[in-house]
TrEMBL record:
Keyword field: Pyridoxal phosphate
InterPro entries reported for this sequence: ArAA_b-elim_lyase/Thr_aldolase (IPR001597), PyrdxlP-dep_Trfase (IPR015424), PyrdxlP-dep_Trfase_major (IPR015421), PyrdxlP-dep_Trfase_small (IPR015422)
Biological source species: Butyricicoccus faecihominis
Family indicated by similarity: Belongs to the beta-eliminating lyase family.
Cofactor: pyridoxal 5'-phosphate
Protein name from the UniProt record: Tryptophanase
Stretches assigned to the Aromatic amino acid beta-eliminating lyase/threonine aldolase domain: 52-507
PANTHER family: BETA-ELIMINATING LYASE-LIKE PROTEIN-RELATED, TRYPTOPHANASE
Domain of life from the UniProt record: Bacteria
Length: 548
């Protein structure tokens, strides 16, 4: 072996060669914009921000290979080439058990394969059934994979069809849908179908901070609390729990990872009570990375190998493909061919033949809202960029750098003395617990986390997202649901877009704001209090903090 020359800093694995300049904006200008947009963060002009960490959804920097792939996109209305490529990319990563089994049919497109027989055999006419992505005629006979342009649209298609089926079978009945942590749009979709969302995780563990702020191994704080899950199912009755969700990584619970052991357990409990398990998988690749780095038995496995095992435990999944660095647009809804979701939501004749296939109902909804199954609301070029992005998310070095950036920010806050930083960092973001940040002095009706977020925009031009009392609608919940709310703000870090300089600026700004936290205003809602997912559209107004 040749001599090694180790350093105490990691070697970089990418560089940037497209640059976007930022304007110089004053506090007065930002104040004017805040007033003009009713203090709604989503309405603040991004062109006036210095660092935008509102979301990592669709905001990623694409790689050169993704940009190049746009030209391979085929905008045909029926069976564009990207349709085959995307479904097979999913099969490669979620079903084939690692790189060694990848077919990578995208490479046939990249190399302009003109052998029509080969393309027919390996791309156009391949038959697949029994998994999450039927292919060929099987996908027409039993549709089970739906390209949909983003995660919430996939959720809404799923929820609407589930609601219709349940309402027909049990008119007027209210259902409970538990999760380790429902995302805000998932909760919104569940509430709009008249069901009750529940979030079952371990809050005490979540707020724990280790000595010195650093864990040796990630403790998987995103896990579902299995005991609470069984208790809930037995107390409301399994017939009143039509679905169990699991968010991977657990975005509303501070982006925390979920262990393979926990996924296995959730699957066991769900199947014990005959309830289909649905993954909400915006950040499956980061979760696979955390499993590799922290869970016994996975150190030698690749992200793709781990992803295959993860997805073997679900009966269906919804996916926002705008995270993890996949692409700027994309989403997916799929269920296992002839699996538990299909069995529970299809109707059968007495002789066991299918009367109504739930996949056909989902496809009708997909077609009526998002276009046919070849593209589902996406352009052909976006589909290609997404396929490339999915493969890139399996790259260890990329994930390693991404998670390291999150750690840098979280530990930066911690070392600066800011209270309430959730540790370890999530895979895509850093969260601060606002109850602790404000020393427990602000009530749940003050929306001080939103005050914090708006003050960060006003003073420093940094936009983050409040995912606590305001966005999660604390005041509209039952006491048991209120106990499940994390009163946090989230600093999202998108793929390869922010530099260490950005993070240092954010650390300095939050430190300064923390030291002056008494002067952060509270907020009240002046319009849109009861609107579904109100944080996207409500109007707010600051009022001074007068500590009681
Ligand atoms: C972003 C996200 C969604 C919604 O997806 P969009 O693509 O933004 O519509 C759903 N669930 C989770 C966990 C998410 O992070």
């Amino acid at each position: 072996m040749s001599k090694q020359y180790p350093l105490n800093v990691p070697a970089p694995h990418h560089f940037t060669y497209a640059v976007r300049d930022l304007p110089e904006v004053t506090v007065e200008q930002r104040e004017r914009a805040l007033q003009a947009t009713h203090y709604n963060e989503f309405a603040f002009p991004s062109g006036m921000l210095t660092v935008d960490m509102l979301s990592d959804s669709g905001t990623t920097a694409m790689t050169n290979h993704q940009w190049a792939s746009l030209f391979l996109g085929d905008e045909a209305y029926g069976r564009n080439t990207g349709y085959y490529v995307l479904l097979d990319t999913f099969r490669d990563i979620f079903e084939r058990g690692g790189e060694k089994n990848w077919k990578k049919i995208i490479d046939l497109v990249r190399t302009d394969c003109r052998d029509v027989e080969k393309m027919m055999d390996e791309v156009y006419l391949c038959e697949y059934e029994g998994g999450l992505f039927n292919g060929g005629a099987a996908q027409m006979e039993r549709p089970n994979a739906f390209i949909i342009q983003q995660g919430r649209a996939a959720e809404s298609v799923l929820m609407e069809i589930v609601r219709n089926i349940l309402a027909k079978r049990h008119p007027g009945k209210k259902f409970t849908i538990p999760s380790n942590g429902h995302f805000d749009t998932t909760e919104g979709n569940i509430k709009q179908m008249g069901s009750i969302p529940r979030n079952l995780y371990n809050k005490t563990l979540l707020w724990e901070v280790p000595e010195g702020g650093r864990y040796e191994k990630n403790p998987f704080k995103g896990n579902m609390d299995i005991e609470k899950l069984e208790q809930l199912i037995t107390s409301v009755g399994p017939e009143n729990v039509p679905l169990i969700f699991t968010c991977i990584t657990n975005n509303p619970v501070c982006g925390q990872a979920v262990s393979m052991g926990n996924l296995k357990e959730i699957n066991r409990v769900a199947h014990k009570y005959n309830i289909p398990l649905v993954f909400d998988t915006a950040r499956w690749a980061e979760n696979a990375y955390f499993i590799k780095m922290n869970e016994e038995g996975y150190a030698d496995k690749s992200i793709a190998e781990i992803a295959t095992e993860m997805f073997s435990y679900c009966d269906a999944f919804t996916m926002s493909a705008k995270k993890d660095g996949h692409a700027n647009m994309g989403g997916m809804l799929a269920f296992r061919d002839k699996g538990l979701f299909w069995k529970n939501f299809s109707d059968f004749n007495e002789d066991g033949t299918v009367k109504t296939d739930v996949g056909v109902l989902l496809k009708v909804k997909q077609i009526s809202c998002y276009g046919n199954d070849s593209y589902g609301g996406m352009s052909g070029r976006d589909i290609m960029a997404l396929a490339v992005g999915l493969y890139e998310s399996c790259d260890f070095n990329y994930m390693n750098e991404r998670v390291a950036q999150c750690n840098y920010l979280a530990e930066g806050f911690y070392d600066a003395g800011v209270k309430g930083v959730v540790l370890p960092a999530g895979g895509h973001a850093v969260y601060i617990n606002m109850d602790e940040f404000f020393d427990g002095k602000r009530g749940h009706d003050t929306f001080a986390g939103e005050g914090f977020s708006l003050e960060l925009i006003r003073r420093y031009g940094i936009r983050v997202s409040e995912l606590g009392d305001y966005s999660m609608e604390y005041d509209l919940k039952t006491p048991e649901q209120q106990a499940e709310v994390c009163n946090v703000v989230r600093f999202a870090i998108d793929r390869s877009r922010l530099t260490k300089e950005h993070l240092d600026y954010v650390i300095a700004a939050v430190k300064a704001l923390y030291e002056d936290r008494e002067n952060i205003p509270n907020m009240r809602i002046v319009w849109g209090h009861n609107l579904p997912m109100r944080h996207f559209h409500a109007f707010l107004e600051p009022y001074p903090n007068e500590e009681k």
